[in-house]
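so my prof wants the structure for this chain in the tokens format not the other one, which i didnt know existed until like an hour ago. anyway here's the sequence
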Amino acid sequence: MNIKMRNLLAVIALMATVFISSCRKDDFDTPPAGGSDPSLIANTTIADLKAGYIAGNFDSIDTDIIIAGVVIADDKSGNFYKTIVLQDSTGGIAIRIDISDYYTKYPVGRRVFVKCKGLWLGDYNELIQLGGYVDNSNPSQPSVEPIPYTLVDNYLIPGVYNLTVNPKLVTINQVLADPDFYQNTLIQLNQVEFADADTGKTYADMILQQSRNLVVKNCSGGSIELRSSNFANFGGDNVPNGNGSLVSVFSVFGSDAQLYIRDVNDVAMDTTRCAGNPPPPGAGVNETFSSQTSGSDISLAGWSNTAVVGNRYWRAASFSGDTYAQATAFGSSLPNMESWLITPAFDLATADTLSFRSSWGFFVHNGLSVWISTDYDGVNFASATWTQLTCTLAVQADGQYVWIPSGNVPLTSFSGNSAHIGFKYSGDGTTNTTTWRIDDVVVK
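here's what i got, hopefully its the right format
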């Protein structure tokens, strides 16, 4: 067989492979819903492009490689910034482009062909990326930089749109076992929920204007982080408190596995948490908050930190080596604020006395109260019955930052298998702005 005949057969085989893979129903719905593809043929898969790449390297692509994939993440919600994520039937890849609001041209569901010659393949903490050039201004931390906006059209050619990429149905353990395979692909986790300590939080920290990592878990104990940017238009939304499904783009940051949602429509958690079987109550509570990081929202196993009104939570603070829980409406501009810090469940049969310390700063109002519930399930705050407790709290006459013991608050009048104590802060950003603190919470 001569060389020309072999080359012709190779081209025919490649075109057949592309045709067959485009007709697969497990990843993409066909036929295309709109538009048309350019007169280009993908001659390499995304998996083959990444094959053999070694983390920390920067590879210049100097051959006529063309890949094609469907956009699975764009910048419409703000959770992805100048990074477009493409996926074909073999894998996914992130492409850095120096364009804002690119979702108008490269939206989720649009096929995009990428002429790779002249681009660079590298990684950001093991997340493989395509970019326009390598920045060596810091020799110890070179990086693949976005394709300049004037050159993007030379490399990214849009095709048909309104395609559907079906997420791969996987478990947490599966993606953790093979992070390279699932990197930059759309996955779906079923029967998962946010960790108890995160159920009262928003997706991002909108007070400090920081991204936030939240823990997603299944009922058998597996867990993975969901990361959201404070620039996301859903960053200030409260996470759901139920169990259900989560669709996300799987990513990595070094040895850490991370999930990124495109918008809140990727989260459907409205069923009972963990088959309705919350952890059994403990014998008591003994919390000093010493494990918490000053300036961060309180996040403790079994505790609920809930913003009932407004978007502020109880936060850790420190002074002279002592870490405590603190809530304030000062500087918030909130018309109303109500935040609850709720203990884990404890067994009323063996623990029937509460004690703690309280203090205030910049007094203008009495914004702290203490409550008990015997029917709170650790999730559904609004449906629980709360009864206010009578206890000694710091008052204005005590002076600023002076810790006042509550004394032993009896709980023997309450009946039931278990109970939760709730510390309620109420105020607003204009008039009722006192800072309130609690520490050394003990139920025994």
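also thought this was worth mentioning. DSSP finds five helices and 30 strands in the chain.
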